Amino acid sequence: MRNIILMMTLCFSSCLCAQEIPLPQKCFPLNGTDSEDIMSGQTADIHGAVHALADRFGTNGKAISFDKEDSYLSFPLVTSGEQGQRELTLTYWLYVGQDSISQAFWTKDQDGNLLFGMKRKGVRAVLDIYHTDNQKNVLPDQQWMWDDSNFNEGKGWYFVALTYSDDGTHFYLVTPKGKMTECYSAFIPDWNLFTSMCIGAVDHIPSTGIDDFKIYDTALSGEQVSILYQFESQFSMGSESLFNVETGIPLYSSTWYFHCVGFQGALQHTLQNQSDLSFLSADAGYALSMTSDVESDNQKWSIYPMKDTAKGRLYTIINIATGMSLSDTREGVFQQVPDNADSQRWCIGQWEGKKQIKSDIGESHDIPLLFEEIYFDKGAGVIRVHIRFPEGENVRIRLTDSQGMLLKELLFSNVQLLERDIRLQINGVCLVIVESDNYQINKKVFVNS
User: Fold this and answer.
1) Is residue 419 within 8 Å of 410, Cβ to Cβ?
2) What is the DSSP string of 227-244?
3) 302 three-class SS
4) Given CA atoms 303, 308, 309, 311 in this order, what sign does their dihedral have?
5) What gap in Å lies between CA 237 and CA 27, rounded to an integer?
6) Residue 322 above 60 pLDDT?
7) Residue 368 above 60 pLDDT?
């Protein structure tokens, strides 16, 4: 069956219309081997071997890559809305490398038919779809996007968005140089056929690097997709420290996720705390608080780069509702009337005194000082521990349950590359603690055999 496809090339406008963007229903930052959905706190199941990858900004360990075959993440797919009105938007970053074919995401029905997904074949984008025959049998199919919507710019990170609604399917692709195209298809999926979704390889088709995979429970407009791209070309979903220039202290001693929630003359953001997944909010007067959801402009912030600093990595953060700046004056963190003081300047990344030490976006990260990959491989039923130490003497691995009871302990000496697969006869949360003379790494892993 041939569906109607319309392809359009979109140009970014310097005068975007005001838009609100909802929070995603699911959001997987995919920082290394971490498969957590930060909207629910649940983790996707990992099947096969996955690895940490440098993201689109060159930051190590902030994206994920998959082994060549049968390596993927899986999670339940929940759609909302009344029957016949269900909508969905998927957005993610896709790395194009040397493989001639690679799968991004996919879904199968109960009979194992590949009915829903997206892949790259050569320089072309292909959607996995399906149609039904006269006997109402569901038959897998594929649909090629027009050749103007392509991967001709070669290696690099591409931004992808797909929107599904009763009006059909829209496919958006933004190249590393910022060219955005849109293709339309009349394909309308029946969400009753799908109960789960997977990110990664399928049926001997390898996957590639994926980053910042999000699902929205509505069909975003082309304008909203354009705004999301502009935001995500500046910020990743990697949890970041917010260091104050005046104090050198990170905001609430935590790291933060940034969400784009709209555009009103400037991009609007929410700041989500990595430790408890709550959102920073401006209260009456000068106070701040944390809330469980984004309910008003009090939880929305504009982040403005400081133009007079090297590499443009310092920012002021201003609340949308109050117009006051996020400040830290050693007496506490609160809102303050903007005055361009160091107490109102924030570094996203690393800060030491008043010297910025976080690498610039374009800087190479070919030789990491340290990487860690600790996760539960559901397919193999083992906890995989892969760590590279610059200096790794007297290394100890301890595995405990959520109550601190020791389950297993391993000792090593003079180790620089540590690779161990550990099998435990438990289900539930397990804490993996790796210690050496110079390093300590703690990782919470959910074991679900």
Assistant:
1) no
2) HHHHHHTT--SS-EEEEE
3) strand
4) positive
5) 9
6) yes
7) no
Q: Minimal CA–CA distance to 53: which of 90, 91, 97?
A: 97
Domains contained in the chain, CATH given: 5-232 (2.60.120.200), 240-356 (2.80.10.50), 371-447 (2.60.40.3080)
Give the contacts of 355 (CB within 8 A, at least 6 positions apart): none
Taking only the tens place, the pLDDT of each residue in 378-404 is: 888 898 888 877 666 778 899 998 788
- The H or E element that residue 351 is part of is strand 351-352
Q: What six digits make up the tokens of 443?
A: 């990782």
Among residues 199, 276, 211, which one has the least CA distance to residue 59?
211
Contact (CB, 8 A) for 411 and 344: no
123-162 confidence digits (pLDDT tens) = 999 999 998 888 888 889 999 998 889 999 989 999 999 9
DSSP 134-194: TT--EEEEEEEPPTTSB-TT-SEEEEEEEEEETTEEEEEEE-TT--EEEEEE-----GGG-
CA distance 105 to 409: 37
